[in-house]
Amino acid sequence: MSTATHAGLQGAQRPTRSRYLIMVMLFITVVINYLDRSNLSIAAPALKDEFGLDTVHEGLILSAFGWTYAAMQIPGGWLVDRVSPRLLYAAALILWSAATFFMGFAGSFVILFVLRLAVGALEAPAYPINNRVVTTWFPERERATAIGFYTSGQFVGLAFLTPVLAWLQHHYGWHMVFVSTGLLGIVWGVLWFMIYREPRQFKGANTAEIELIQQGGGVVDLDRRAREKKAPFSWNDLGLVMSKRKLWGVYLGQFCLTSTLWFFLTWFPTYLVKYRGMDFIKSGFLASVPFLAAFIGVLCSGVLSDFLIRRGATVGLARKLPIILGLLISTSMIGANFTDSTPWVIFFLAVAFFGNGLASITWSLVSTLAPVRLLGLTGGVFNFVGNLSSICTPIVIGFLVTKESFAPAIVYVSSLALLGALSYILLVGKVERIEA
């Protein structure tokens, strides 16, 4: 056997690992995505003073993102089924980051509100794109780990960068919080367009890796299928993904799960500063502790789920167990209402957010349950229902809290975590792909 032939066989026997580069790219994108969602919560105490906002108006501005983000989920999901992730993600990144950048120059509540609405609308396709990319690039046995890894970006980015944003605000004003995060996203949008390709077009992926993905359940030709079947929007398709009980189990469960997340993304810094009496710099560092706990939780979730798959567990057990367990752990947030000790408050919130991270591989169920040709639309509906919490949570908390007490808001968020666990237990049932 010649050396060249032997090398060729060796190459065929050893699949490349380009999919892990894609996983890192998704991770970076999610870090930026969540910085642009949460930067307003960092600036909120200063904005409240500068614009003279009461708690109701503060709740409205914190919810502005959610109005358009939720409203654009189904149109965004429809686009994901038709436009290449390379183009759609780059365009979305650059545009929402530009809106974020200009928030740093807002001179009134109204301008800030309108720009925040724009950020929400333009971020809408992000997670359906993430789900589409993972379904294209990863076999089933690696998918939860990939989803867990990139989802961890929403926590680790906030854990390490929240103190940085707090420092920027303290020394340079709230304007720099938006200018810095906006510029970061614009640069990354350009890089995404330059680097990302589908598996068959990606130069670093060899035939063996593509076969490994395809044989393991990855849909490597999804982009080609989208080009061949550019069907118009169909109400029947929407009716299909809105009519399945098991899909409603994950839709409602996602609403409850993200309610906890949106508490941390919106009211959490205000809770520490205004209701627990912490100075802003100290609260910036303490706020990072629950995000670190959530980061650990989400990594444990993906690894545990794929480990169970490899050990022969059913897909249903492997995917649902971390989610249900995590939602039940999240109810521990209620403990913060029964202590005045700062370390114990942070402890209860960290444990709750660890549970939220543990439960956050919910997209793995969408990837497994959704009809293949309606992957983006199903993801859009899932994210639409789930992110209604981004509207409800800030506003409901704004009405529930008083000048003296934040306790009713903690009860509200804890109760929804319990309802989310019940949704996955009672509604989802057997995990299997729905045929269109």
Tell me about this structure.
One of its GO terms (molecular function) is transmembrane transporter activity. Its main location: membrane. The termini are far apart. The chain is built from 23 helices and no strands. Helices cover 78% and strands 0% of the residues. It is mainly α and 436 residues long. It is globular. The protein has two domains: 17-220, MFS general substrate transporter like domains (Growth Hormone, Chain: A, Up-down Bundle), CATH 1.20.1250.20; 236-435, MFS general substrate transporter like domains (Growth Hormone, Chain: A).
List keywords for this structure.
single chain, 436 residues, mainly alpha, Growth Hormone, Chain: A, 2 domains, globular
Summarize the structure.
The chain crosses the membrane at residues 20-35, 87-115, 147-168, 174-195, 247-265, 285-309, 321-338, 344-369, 381-400, 406-427. With 436 residues, the chain is mainly alpha-helical.
CATH topology of the largest domain: Growth Hormone, Chain: A
CATH superfamily placement of the largest domain: MFS general substrate transporter like domains
Uncertain stretches: 1-11
Q: What string, H for helix and E for strand, traces the elements in order?
A: HHHHHHHHHHHHHHHHHHHHHHH
How would you classify the quaternary structure?
single chain
Shape: globular
User: How many strand units?
Assistant: 0
Name of the level-1 CATH class of the largest domain: Mainly Alpha
The number of helical elements comes to: 23
- Sheet with the most strands, sense and barrel status: none
Report the β-strand fraction as a percent range. Answer: under 5%
- At CATH level 2, the architecture of the largest domain is Up-down Bundle
Radius of gyration: 21 Å
Helical proportion, percent range: over 70%
What structural class results from the helix and strand content? mainly alpha
Domains, number: 2
What gap, in angstroms, lies between the N and C termini? Answer: 49 Å
Mean pLDDT: 81
Main location: membrane
Transmembrane segments: 20-35, 87-115, 147-168, 174-195, 247-265, 285-309, 321-338, 344-369, 381-400, 406-427
Pfam families: MFS_1
GO molecular function: transmembrane transporter activity
